[in-house]
């Protein structure tokens, strides 16, 4: 009888334990779902343009047809440009010799740094520009990606950030040092033009950025920042001589200057107090002038949501705590406008219109190609 009673008691406790574990798991899932919903309420979906899903199964690439970009004598195929372990180097004279980790990475887990960030470290709207950043800053960011202290502000899948996090978990200390030293020696040149508009071209997503719909048409920009490629093919071919255009609401540049220089909009500190008078960076604090405004906006949102919680970013948590999305757009646009001299090589045409210049003329685009005097 005692053994039967013991078995019954044991069974009751097992059931209770299972129920508690199940309840804990369900509660944890509900909390996680609640957190995701909160983040999605703070992070607008348009900040992270996502490539449309492919339903064709295994993707194949052309190994035959030669591809070119303006101003370059280099030739690649579509298959070449899809290789994450070979950075497409259209303009090899524009940078110093790449270390192996930048040019090729290390299969199967460490992708070539130069594939996403470009060989000269100029980056693209979907990722970071690394040129000219202090080596210790780059090293710390990789450590934060590895530890989880730095993530994408978007709660769902976002391949550019997911690839970075994956590589950071496998890269060696020597590889990190080599990449950091290399990128710090490259010179950042802005690849973006900021324009204040009421309306923008109807868009699609190509390679994680916006591109004008081939059929034309336009729509209200509203309270958004939308960075477009003027040439979808050159963007897909990873042409690092391409200049992008960021459309922002009218009045963003003036408002952004006030936030950046005087700490208006709820920011307890002005951006210039840490990043320097021209936002060129100071010491280990990174330069933000001339960088992609889409990238800058995502980082502000990452600080706001806690997706960036590393020790070096702690001062930013107070800065963004009371900033709304409109002021974030404004300050990102202002910082991007401070240096907008694109990379121009002999024979390289610079795309200024999106679509043709008639669109901007018709909608009275306010252009900020030459930067701002402070």
How would you explain this protein's 3D organization?
- With 374 residues, the protein is α/β, with parallel strands linked by helices.
- The chain has 3 domains: 1-29; 78-184, Cytochrome c-like domain (Cytochrome Bc1 Complex, Chain D, domain 2, Orthogonal Bundle), CATH 1.10.760.10; 192-368, Orthogonal Bundle (Cytochrome Bc1 Complex, Chain D, domain 2).
- It contains 14 helices and 8 strands.
- The protein has helices spanning 2-42, 78-81, 100-103, 113-117, 135-147, 159-168, 173-184, 232-236, 252-262, 272-275, 293-305, 314-320, 325-337, 357-362; strands at residues 192-197, 199-201, 203-206, 209-212, 218-220, 226-229, 244-249, 366-368.
- Strands 3-4-6-7-1-8 form a 6-stranded mixed beta sheet.
- Helix 5 crosses helix 6 (159-168), helix 5 (135-147) crosses helix 7 (173-184) and helix 9 packs across helix 13 (325-337).
- It starts with a helix and ends in a 6-residue tail after the last strand.
- 40% of the residues are buried.
Q: Which labels suit this protein?
A:
single chain, 374 residues, alpha/beta, Cytochrome Bc1 Complex, Chain D, domain 2, 6-stranded mixed beta sheet, disordered C terminus
Q: Would you tell me which CATH topology of the largest domain applies?
A: Cytochrome Bc1 Complex, Chain D, domain 2
Instruction: Find the structural class using helix and strand composition.
Output: alpha/beta
CATH class categorisation of the largest domain: Mainly Alpha
Shape: globular
Measured between the Cα atoms of the first and last residue, the distance is: 88 Å
Count of β-strands: 8
Unreliable residue stretches: 23-27, 29-33, 340-359, 367-374
Multimeric status of the protein: single chain
Fraction of residues in helix: 25-40%
